[in-house]
Amino acid sequence: MNRHQRIARAIEASGKKKGEIAALCGVANSAVTQWISGESKSLRPENLYALARATGFRAEWLAIGEGPQREAQVDANVADIHQPRMSFRYPVISWVSAGSWEEAVEPYPEGFSDRYEISDYDSKGPAFWLEVKGDSMTAPSGLSVPEGMMILIDTEAEVLPGKLVIAKLPASNEATFKKLVEDGGVRYLKPLNPAYKMIECGPDCRIIGVAVRMTARL
Question: Do residues 124 and 177 both lie within one domain?
Fold first, then answer.
């Protein structure tokens, strides 16, 4: 069963009309129609969890078909227990894919990634994980992002000086990870490792997204 078929089944089982689902999810009726038909290949995390709440089906089952369709029923005489915080699932992509992100017509096309990681971060827009390469962001002290760390990039987070960003330089087909700084009205990409030079972020330099989380595998 494909995702759009699971969504259609959940909405039908909920007994709600498409207009009701749209209102509960905060989207247009046409968006729900596209979810059901499969015309929409992507589903933002906040919409997925809103759909799960509206239909009573589990978000994980709706998204990837894993686990039970619904949460287990709890005896009414049993006291509520603390619920874990909400988590969101984002794809892990290559640095080349990150570099061409803005050119993509659809944020998450079919088969976009075969690896996903979970975060508690609710992204403002399409988001993805990258594995840090090299030591240009390894600092001798203070904030440091060494090779092998996983960073979560939000493509619609606010871009401000001082943020760690993913940028695309005109001379490269890959994205680069640096700290965005500004001096005299000119923006630069600054490595955290002082052994590397700053790079001017001119008119042809595109900021793809902002790093909002980082984690490491042990």
Answer: yes
pLDDT score, position 165: 95
Reduced 3-state DSSP string for the chain: CCHHHHHHHHHHHHCCCHHHHHHHHCCCHHHHHHHHHCCCCCCCHHHHHHHHHHHCCCHHHHHHCCCCCCCCCCCCCCCCCCCCCCCEEEEECCHHHHHCHHHCCCCCCCCCCCCEEEECCCCCCCEEEEECCCCCCCCCCCCCCCCCCEEEEECCCCCCCCCEEEEECCCCCCEEEEEEEEECCEEEEECCCCCCCCEECCCCCEEEEEEEEEECCC
Q: Are residues 111 and 37 in the same domain?
A: no
pLDDT reading at 181 higher than 90:
yes
The chain-wide mean pLDDT, for the chain, equals 83
93 with 147, same domain: the answer is yes
Structural domain span for residue 132? 89-215
Q: Which residues contact 204 (CB under 8 A, 6 or more apart)?
A: 169, 170
State whether 118 and 210 are in the same domain.
yes
**183: pLDDT strictly greater than 60:** yes
Q: Note whether 98 and 200 are same-domain residues.
A: yes
In this structure, the answer to whether residues 184 and 102 fall within a common structural domain is yes
